[in-house]
Amino acid sequence: MKQTVICKISKIEDCKREDNLDDIIVREYPLSIFLNEKKLATLLCSPENLKALIVGFLRTEGMINKAEDVISFKLDEAKSQVEVETLDKTLTGENFFSKKIDLDSIKVEDIKGIDNFLKSLNCKPVESDTSITVPNIFRFMRENLDHSKVFKETGGVHCAALVDSEKMLVAKEDVARHNALDKVIGEALMKNIFLKDKAVILSGRVSLEMILKAAKMEIPIIISKSAPTSLSVALAKSLNLTLVGFVRRNKMNIYTGGYRVKE
Predict the structure, then answer these.
(1) Which member of 82, 149, 186, 241 lies 3.0 to 4.6 Å from 52 by CB, making a disulfide possible if both were Cys?
(2) Would you tell me which CATH number, out of the four given (3.30.1360.120, 3.40.140.10, 3.30.70.2190, 3.40.50.12780), belongs to the domain 125-262?
(3) Three-class DSSP labels, 118-166
(4) 69: closest CA among 180, 230, 186, 162?
């Protein structure tokens, strides 16, 4: 399936207008997921690496533990839907991890609120001595953005990558930043890549949801070209995660877990 489409546009540059020009825009694909014959959700995504997306999505939602828990994956492109069968036939939309978390407990951004929120997640602080060097952070960020042809053509996708201390292991892209991360996690699971000593490289804003996805997989380091949110910083600190943002040119901000960043 093509990830881009051609769109006719009018362009204004230096106060001059040109009409009927071709522009390349990213395709946004609605994918309906049927889990064990029941509709689970519809994701708006980029139409590639869809099995990795589903495996990562189900894992970060706490519905499966490993890629082998998905025993059937049938994609119907014409209907924009996928039928997924798991070993556990009792899985339904009621098993959604995100529906179980207690967002009411973090109405105020204080330690007590975060602690109550963590209890609702059943998520423990990440214990990892892995580290990453400053030069490699800059290199991985460049590689993460450079690998995507669609990003270069359209600027309309988010890029995510999984790295160890020396090299990039998995790189994916999607119109939604959380989908890009799910694709990376799903691909890593399908390749049996150990995650607890790795880092994720992101092109977009780091929200609480992105921190949760990394924390559920016990990935200790999150690095982004963009900004974090206040709750993502608070949660990263509570979960002993290293959070680095605004990685651009020769600068970066280390928000939490700075001991894992080596000069």
Answers:
(1) 186
(2) 3.40.140.10
(3) HHHHCCCCCCCCCCEEHHHHHHHHHHHHHCCHHHHHHCCCEEEEEECCC
(4) 186
Q: Report pLDDT for 177.
A: 95
Tokens of 102: 């207690």
Q: With 60 as the cut, is the pLDDT of residue 89 above it? A: yes
Domain with CATH 3.40.140.10 in the chain: 125-262
* CATH tag for 29-95 (out of 3.10.20.10, 3.40.50.300, 3.30.110.170, 3.30.430.20): 3.10.20.10
| Average pLDDT of the segment spanning 250-261 | 97
Quickly state the pLDDT bin for 39 (edges 50, 70, 90): very high
* Count of all residues that appear for the chain in the document: 263
Determine the residue type at 9.
I
